[in-house]
Design goal:
The protein is an all-beta fold. It contains no helices and 20 strands. A hairpin with a 4-residue loop joins strand 18 (262-267) and strand 19.
Length: 292
């Protein structure tokens, strides 16, 4: 990607972001990194701080190698690609917009990133299993905490609706856990999440209301596991929970709707399943929605 910077000072590659003292005017940002057979999660929920208004453009965040790209969606200038594009929007620290933002605080390829509900912090994970919480609304984007949370790559991240807890899922490798839920500021565990087959998970979702629920999807067992809390534990044995609605392969994505009344899962078998958000009962299964 291309930076347009006034001045001769070189950007220090050891910094977690482009120094705010450099008068950056425009950025031509890259597209998301894609790998065959791997899900790419785009985060378009910028939180309350970044809601679309007169000052803030709609945001979309994704990984690109070791970097995290936050792109501003300029609906009025969607065909404008030059550095001369004018914008009345402001960036995360209140400075004039430069078309987006690039965060580079990870030492390994980034695999997931999510805004907090308030929009003031970002939780991001990488291929080495490190979870990093950093400030979005601070001009230097300082880190709050960094945790070695999983033994293998983190695949997905989800915040609770209060912004106090974070659930991550990925590859547990030789560790007994492939998913964890922790306090956002201390890293203290908030319960025990059940592991998927071969300690490989693919997606997770926090219910955006009370009573709290966590859903996790397996990367190889076609299973959705449901947990209640806090402290969180697996919901089993009541005859209502529908864990095996997909026929084979991975659960590519799990997401709740805005009010938490419905959970949806998309799988390798080409189907999408809809569940009751609270008791996890299957509502409907739609077959052959996609080919893979």
């Amino acid at each position: 990607f291309i930076f347009f910077i006034m001045g001769v000072e070189q950007v220090d590659a050891s910094n977690a972001c482009i120094p705010p003292t450099h008068p950056l005017t425009f950025q031509a940002l890259p597209l998301p990194t894609a790998s065959r057979g791997e899900t790419i999660f785009l985060d378009g929920e910028g939180g309350r701080l970044n809601d679309n208004d007169d000052k803030h453009a709609p945001l979309i965040m994704y990984a690109w190698g070791k970097l995290i790209v936050v792109r501003e969606i300029e609906l009025n200038n969607i065909h404008t690609t030059t550095a001369c594009a004018s914008s009345s929007h402001v960036g995360p620290s209140g400075a004039p917009s430069t078309n987006g933002f690039v965060y580079r605080g990870h030492s390994a390829p980034v695999t997931a990133a999510k805004f907090s509900p308030a929009g003031t912090y970002v939780a991001s994970g990488d291929s080495k299993g490190k979870l990093r919480i950093w400030a979005w609304d601070h001009e230097e984007h300082l880190p709050k905490i960094e945790l070695q949370i999983l033994a293998g790559p983190i695949k997905d991240i989800s915040w609770d609706f209060e912004g106090k807890r974070i659930v991550v899922i990925g590859d547990g490798c030789q560790s007994p856990e492939n998913a964890k839920v922790v306090q956002w500021d201390t890293g203290v565990k908030c319960g025990d999440l059940s592991a998927h087959a071969r300690k490989k998970g693919s997606s997770c979702a926090f219910r955006p209301c009370r009573p709290m629920r966590i859903a996790t999807g397996g990367a190889e067992d076609a299973t959705v596991l449901f947990h209640k809390g806090p402290p969180f534990q697996r919901v089993v044995g009541d005859g209502i929970v529908s864990e095996k609605c997909h026929e084979r392969g991975a659960i590519h994505s799990l997401r709740y709707n805005k009010d938490g009344s419905v959970l949806a899962s998309a799988g390798t078998d080409g189907s999408v399943c809809f569940y009751e958000g609270k008791d996890m009962k299957l509502i409907k299964k739609v077959e052959k929605v996609h080919k893979s």
